[in-house]
C-alpha cells in the first residue's frame, strides 16, 4: 500500500508533533458500540520525543486519527510498514513525533448509523480520543493538537469529521470517496452500507456532503495518485479549486504519483 507512505509524507509537510513508546495492536472497549474495537498505535519513543520538544519549545504534540479505506484496517497500518516508516522518519528528525491511531471501521463510513444503533462517530469522539489523550498526557487535548487523516472511505470520513466536530485543526484526505446521495450508482454492497448509515435524500445528506461543507475550517490537504483506479485526481483538483474560491484552508490540489 504505497499510498500510505505518501500520506505520511504529506502529514509531515503539515508540521505535526507528539510523546511516547512503541507500536501496539490492541482493542479499545466501547460502551457505545457494545464491543471492543481493534486499533493500531504508533507512539514515538521517549528519547525521540524529548529531543524534538527540546528543539521545538511550545509546539503542540499531535494526535493523528487515521481512518483506513473500505478494504483496509489497523493491521495494514502495521503490516504494510507505515508504523515502521513513521518511526524511522521521526528518529532521523525528518518528521515531528506524533501519536497515531488507526482504527477498524466496520463499514461504518466513520459516521453514526441512521437508527442510532451503531454510533461510530460518537465512539471516535467521545470514547477513543479521550481514552488515548488520558493515557498519553501531552498528546492532543485541543483542536490545535489534533489531526485527522484518511484514505478512500477514510478520506471521506476525515473530511466529515473535520467539518462536523470542530475537534481537528488539520485534515488530510487521500483519494477520498466523494459520496453523494441517493447512492443509486454504487455497487450493491456499498449502497447497502451507505443507506444503513446516511439519509438518501440529498438535502438531508448535506451535513455529510464534502462538496458542501469542504472539510470545515481545518487546514486541508487533499490529493490522489495520477494512477488512482477511480480517477480521483481530477475530482481532488476540482475540490481544491472550490475550497480556494470559497476561501477555505485547502492546501491542494496535491495530486501526484504514490
Could you give the topology of this structure?
Layout: H1 2-13, E1 24-30, E2 35-42, H2 46-55, E3 63-67, H3 74-79, H4 82-92, E4 99-103, H5 120-135, E5 146-151, H6 153-165, E6 170-174, H7 188-197, H8 202-205, H9 210-213, E7 219-223, H10 232-245
Parallel strand pairs: 3-4, 3-5, 5-6, 6-7
Antiparallel strand pairs: 1-2, 2-4
As a percent range, the share of helical residues equals 25-40%
What is the general shape? Answer: globular
Second rung of CATH, namely the architecture: 3-Layer(aba) Sandwich
Written as H for each helix and E for each strand, in order along the chain, the element string is HEEHEHHEHEHEHHHEH
Low-confidence stretches: 1-6, 12-23, 251-258
- For this structure, what is the CATH class? Alpha Beta
Give the spatial strand order of the biggest sheet: 1-2-4-3-5-6-7
- Computed Rg: 17 Å
- Fold-level CATH name: Rossmann fold
Number of strands: 7
Determine the N-to-C terminus distance: 9 Å
CATH superfamily: Alpha/Beta hydrolase fold, catalytic domain
* Proportion of beta-strand residues: 15-25%
> Which structural class do the helices and strands define?
alpha/beta
Q: What is the number of helical segments per DSSP (H or I, 4+ residues)?
A: 10
What is the total domain count?
Answer: 1
| Major sheet description | 7 strands, mixed
* Mean pLDDT, all residues: 86
